[in-house]
Design brief:
Elements: E1 2-7, E2 27-28, E3 31-32, H1 33-43, E4 48-53, H2 57-67, E5 72-77, H3 84-89, E6 101-104, E7 108-110, H4 114-118, E8 123-129, E9 137-141, E10 147-152, E11 161-169, H5 172-185, H6 195-204, E12 209-213, E13 217-219, H7 223-237, E14 250-251, E15 255-257, E16 262-264, E17 267-268, E18 272-274, E19 279-281, E20 284-290, E21 295-306, E22 311-317, E23 320-321, E24 326-328
Parallel strand pairs: 1-4, 1-6, 4-5, 8-12, 14-17, 15-18, 16-19, 17-20, 18-20, 19-21, 20-21, 21-22, 21-23, 22-24
Antiparallel strand pairs: 2-3, 6-11, 7-13, 8-11, 9-10
Length: about 325
């Protein structure tokens, strides 16, 4: 089975951080979003990956090849970027028709049982119940759990089952043929070839697509959702008792502090992630993500995201600061 991960998007909702790095490499709970996704798939036994890259794709490729030299990884450039269906279609020459195919969007962290999904003899689509499904793709299902209709961001939803960005194809032939027909006929919605539309065509032809409920679904698409995900994953991954020893500093767990940090006379936590070799002096930081190689002095930060290689002195605010920034409020 091959796993396709589209990571070509610009990530406009996470600017200014995505001016200098792709959204998939924005850190959360101590490591990039993409690392959370790939690590969980490797743990589930996956070794064969195709990454659909575009915006700052060289950084994605470097990250994967350096961090995961033991997996089989291929990289396909999506240019222009014309939707998730187009991204998957670009991988057609790397996937054999009879091969199983897993597609996971590269900006969302999802917990699901891959083994149970792949045991079925039909296609599958990951769903999660939400309070307001109008901002998502939505699946309608029958009593047996098979998809009857799919809608993209419906104004009046007939279901609260949101699509979470996980798709399984028992064999690649049918979805690739459908996407090939869509691209040939230039069947677009809002100038994009949508994977949801391709799945709708499969369902319309009588193909069985089972909706499977996922466990936790972590959105990383905006500053607020990124910080919420950071807080939840910190509690899961580092626990509440991890010990740190810094000069005259109080650590309130859960926190993730990368190697090489110099922290003194500060209060850190809860729900704080700090990248490697960052310096923090005389500061109070909570509910925040701080990038690598940054320096903070006499700062009071809450609900903030500070990029890498940044310098910040004398501030009490809620911030969203990109990489390579220098601010002095003293």
């Amino acid at each position: 089975m091959k796993t396709v991960i589209p990571v070509a998007g610009i990530g406009t909702k996470l600017r200014p951080h995505t001016h200098t790095q792709p959204k998939a490499l924005v850190p959360v709970a101590g490591k990039p979003i993409l690392a959370h996704i790939v690590d969980s798939l490797i743990e589930a036994g996956q070794r064969d990956f195709i990454f659909i890259i575009g915006y700052l794709g060289d950084k994605i490729e470097s990250f994967i090849t350096e961090r995961y030299p033991h997996i089989r990884s291929s990289f396909v450039v999506q240019e222009p970027r014309e939707g998730t269906g187009h991204a998957l279609w670009l991988a057609r020459d790397l996937v054999s028709p009879e091969e199983q195919l897993l597609v996971i969007l590269g900006d969302t962290i999802v917990d699901f049982d891959l083994e149970s999904v792949t045991k079925t003899q039909c296609h599958g689509i990951g769903v999660k119940k939400v309070d307001d499904p109008r901002s998502f793709g939505v699946a309608e299902i029958n009593e047996e759990g098979f998809v009857t209709r799919l809608h993209e961001k419906p104004t009046i939803p007939k279901s609260n089952l949101a699509l979470v960005g996980v798709y399984y194809f028992h064999s690649a032939e049918q979805i690739m043929r459908t996407l090939d027909d869509m691209v040939s006929a230039q069947v677009k919605i809002r100038d994009e070839y949508n994977l949801t539309d391709a799945l709708s065509q499969l369902v319309g032809r009588g193909e069985k697509v089972r909706a499977f409920q996922v466990g936790n679904w972590y959105d990383c698409g905006s500053k607020t959702s990124l910080l919420e995900t950071n807080a939840v994953l910190l509690k899961r991954t580092v626990g509440l008792s991890q010990g740190f020893a810094f000069n005259n500093t109080i650590i309130i767990p859960p926190v993730s502090i990368a190697p090489g940090c110099d922290i003194s006379n500060s209060i850190i936590g809860p729900d704080v992630s700090i990248g490697e070799r960052t310096i923090v002096k005389s500061s109070i930081i909570s509910d925040s993500i701080i990038g690598s190689f940054s320096q903070l002095e006499t700062a009071v930060l809450n609900h903030s995201v500070v990029g890498s290689d940044s310098y910040l002195k004398g501030l009490s605010q809620s911030l969203n600061i990109g990489d390579s920034t220098e601010i002095d409020f003293s």
